Amino acid sequence: MQNRKVLPAVAFVVLVTLVFGGACQFRGQPGDLHFSLIFKDAKQLRPGQFLVYKGMRIGKVQNVDLDPSGTVRVQIQVSSKYRDLVHQEATFVIEKPTIADISGEHQVTMSDSVSKGTPIVEGSVLQGSEGWLSDLAGNAKDAIAKAAEGVRDAISKSTKRR
Hints:
About 35% of the residues lie in helices and about 25% in strands.
């Protein structure tokens, strides 16, 4: 008779444990860092793929959305034990898998730009890098625009003197 009372109680405890455990796994662990990266192109990145730093998986992609402005917002979750490695000055790039990576999964790769940087605040939105070639082209475009502005200013000043 006692077994009939214990069985429903055990079943209830197991059910609560499964539901609570699943909710914790979905949300991550306390102390995990969540932030967003903005890219021009998602390059087939999807939720569940990894944030990699020095070949080590330190976080994962939570969501990939297209903003109304046409940019891609990638939401990242970093494990609490690695959150001190992530800083605002780091470079984040969506990379295709290498030949050695048999999974074929894209990933977000983080690389350092400085040894100690500004910590990322929970919920921050950072600009991702489109890769060195795209960054180089963007920097050249900015430099040309500044040079053109300088030429226009010089012409404007010289015509005012006359």
